[in-house]
Amino acid sequence: QVQLVESGGGLVLPGGSLRLSCAASGFPITDYAMEWYRQRPGKEREKVAYINGSGGYANHAGSVNGRFTATRDNNRNLVFLQMNNLQHDDAGVYYCVGPDASWGQGTQVTVSS
Fold first, then answer.
1. For residue range 44-82, what is the model confidence (pLDDT) as tens digits?
2. Is 40 exposed, middle or buried (0-12, 13-18, 19+ CB in 10 A)?
3. Which of 5, 65, 81, 107 is the most buried (most CB within 10 A)?
């Protein structure tokens, strides 16, 4: 069955960077677009990035555009979210989403000085 496992979250200073990874299994990853969502405290869940199956096209929410970049390595069944210039408002749990609305368990991002 579809399994998505996120990693790479942690504590970072404002202005810092993190790279999240999503290890995918149980489906042919090349055939599916993938997405990243986040859940911030007190706010609605928000889609932050979309990347198509080949990785040739990605788009990002306006709130993260220019700071976050989704990429993927289909040979290793991995999807990434590079996050730069992180701010307090970016703190939350980040999720990888795959086919049939499958979700990973999430990885926590904390931005604090």
1. 999 999 999 999 999 999 999 999 999 999 999 999 999
2. middle
3. 81
